[in-house]
Design goal:
The chain is of the alpha/beta class. The chain contains seven helices and 24 strands. Strands 14, 15, 16, 17, 18, 19, 20, 21, 22, 23 and 24 form an eleven-stranded parallel sheet that branches. The protein has a seven-stranded mixed sheet with strand order 5-4-1-6-11-8-12, sandwiched between helices. Strands 2-3 form a two-stranded antiparallel ribbon.
């Protein structure tokens, strides 16, 4: 079965990190967001992937080809015209009678994917949210979806579409998206996937909601760190490094160097990073980054960065360098 993953977004809310790294390749709990998604798909029998790439798409393509042997296709999106437009481009690699799983490339979802895929009908992953105005929202009658709208001013429910879609065949969604793109039909300035799904509902297509157990947002620094904490809480390790105090859960690369430091809880340290005379808590440290003589918490440091100083909350992009006098 094929899965389609749109990953063309710029990731403005995650700057400065996304100036040099596409959002799906940002690290969380020891590996890129996209790796969490792909690994879950491969574990559930997906054997072919379609990516819709745009911003720094070459880096995403290189990452996929170098890390995975799964058959992969890449559709290039030049204009960011909404999720519906991205899916429209990706459907080039899918036949009308094929089932298709769609997974958004900036959200990590933990659920029983085998049951989700096995549904007899079209199915949408849904999750209960406090502020549904930010999302596509569905109305339910039992499990069946009877209505949906994108980012409503007056939501009729708190069930939000959680970035996971399963189509038993894609003929109907292709037809509706092709029509919307050809006629430039937009809502809120974009070609919305939810609008195409609404048309399918009007035409009598059967959709059901599937409640997502865990839904991790990676869209902003604070939510990326929150996701990092949750995933490390489930998958982190209790590492021992002589001469240091390590407080689990952590994820420390075997090629990282840590000296005379206190690390954890909820810290990941990337490949070839160097940590000396530091206290780190609740932070993500990129590969080849150097940290000395400081206390850091609630912080994200990109790859190839350097920081020496005192106690700060810090978001430092790739290839940045900050030096402060250590007293």
């Amino acid at each position: 079965m094929k899965a389609l993953i749109p990953v063309a977004g710029i990731g403005e809310r995650l700057r400065p990190f996304t100036h040099t790294t596409p959002k799906p390749l940002l690290s969380v709990a020891g590996k890129p967001i996209l790796a969490h998604i792909i690994d879950g798909l491969l574990d559930n029998g997906i054997d072919e992937l379609v990516f819709v790439v745009g911003y720094m798409g070459e880096k995403i393509e290189d990452f996929v080809k170098n890390r995975y042997s799964v058959k992969s296709h890449f559709a290039w999106q030049k204009d960011l015209l909404g999720l519906g437009f991205a899916i429209h481009l990706g459907l080039e690699f899918v036949d009308d009678n094929e089932p298709l799983l769609i997974v958004l490339g900036d959200t990590i979802i933990e659920t029983d994917l085998s049951k989700f895929i096995a549904s007899k009908h079209h199915v949408l992953g849904i999750t209960w949210v406090d502020n549904p105005r930010r999302f596509g929202v569905v109305e339910l009658s039992g499990k069946r979806i009877v209505g949906m709208v994108e980012k409503p001013e007056s939501p009729k429910s708190n069930w939000a579409i959680a970035g996971l879609y399963m189509f038993r065949s894609i003929a109907a969604i292709r037809k509706n998206l092709d029509y919307m793109v050809k006629n430039d039909i937009r809502s809120k300035g974009e070609i919305q996937l939810t609008d195409a799904l609404c048309k399918m509902l009007d035409d009598g297509e059967h959709f059901e909601g599937f409640v997502i157990e865990e839904w991790y947002d990676c869209g902003k620094p604070e939510t990326l760190l929150r996701t990092h904490r949750k995933l490390l809480g489930k998958n982190g390790t209790a590492t021992e490094l002589p001469g240091n105090i390590i407080i689990p859960p952590v994820n420390i690369s075997t090629n990282a160097i840590v000296e005379n430091s206190i690390v954890g809880p909820y810290v990941s340290i990337g490949n070839k990073a160097k940590i000396k005379n530091a206290i780190l808590r609740d932070s993500i440290v990129g590969g080849s980054t150097v940290i000395t003589n400081c206390i850091l918490e609630h912080s994200i440091l990109g790859n190839d960065s350097s920081f020496s100083g005192q106690s700060y909350k810090l978001n430092l992009g790739d290839s940045s360098k900050v030096e402060l006098e250590w007293e």
